[in-house]
Amino acid sequence: MTDAAPTRARRSDATRAAILRAARERFAADGYDRATIRAIAADARIDPSMVMRYYGSKEGLFAAAAEFDLRLPELADMPPDRLGELLVRHFVDRWETDGTMAALLRTAATNHAAAERMRGIFADQLTTAVARVVPEPAQAPRRAGLVASQMLGLALTRYVLRLPPVADADPGELVAWVAPTVQRYLRGAPDA
Which of these, 55, 51, 71, lies nearest to 63 by C-alpha position? Predict the structure, then answer.
């Protein structure tokens, strides 16, 4: 009897791992909208009800499966007066070439787990990078949060809502508009 619980736990862990592995592959291959719970379950060789049991919904599964590295450049190696431009260009390039973040952003608007995942990605990765270049490292969380507000707002209007003036803009034009604000968030004074 004492061996049954650990065996179930190992089986449960293996099932979860198989689901996440299949989900990552399916979301990468098909995108969020076209990936289905049935296809993911088939890839994992389990019943679709097991996916729902462990993750509750497609949105919950996507939030759990989303492994996203912002691949931020080493900001400390960049000229301080160009940090805003370089960071905005980096984010625009990432959003333009990888639909995973747009799918996660879309899902985060209505799903708690996806919102938590998005917060974690930006809090961990962006704050760490920003801390290396801000005038006072204690301000890094606030400054990184402001940078995230610009990047996520831009992504929401361009890639999720597809607001025509923003969605139709050339990426270089977006960088030119947004970079000065991000530069101020990174290096400027709050009253500047």
Answer: 55
The CA-to-CA distance between both ends of the chain, in Å, stands at: 68
The answer to whether 133 and 187 have CB atoms below 8 angstroms apart is yes
Q: Is the dihedral of CA 69, 75, 81, 82 positive or negative?
A: negative
Phi and psi, residue 41, nearest 5°: -60, -40
Question: How far is 100 from 105, CA to CA, in rounded Å?
Answer: 9
Per-residue pLDDT, 4:
62
Provide the 3-class DSSP secondary structure of residue 57: coil
**Residue 179 amino acid letter:** A
How far is residue 98's CA from residue 10's CA, in Å, rounded to a whole number?
Answer: 34
d(C-alpha 50, C-alpha 41), whole Å: 8
Spatial separation of the C-alpha atoms in residues 112 and 115, rounded to whole Å = 5
Short-list 57, 55, 70, CA closest to 18:
55
User: Residue 178 in contact with residue 150, Cβ under 8 Å?
Assistant: yes
Distance, CA of 8 to CA of 12 (rounded, Å): 6
Look at the alpha carbons of 69, 74, 76, 81 in this order and tell me if their dihedral is positive or negative: negative
Spatial CA neighbour of 60 closest among 124, 122, 125, 16: 16
Angstrom distance (rounded) from CA 37 to CA 183: 42
Question: What averages of pLDDT result for each successive group of 10 residues across the chain (192 residues)?
Answer: 63 90 84 89 96 90 82 93 96 87 79 81 92 94 96 94 96 98 94 65
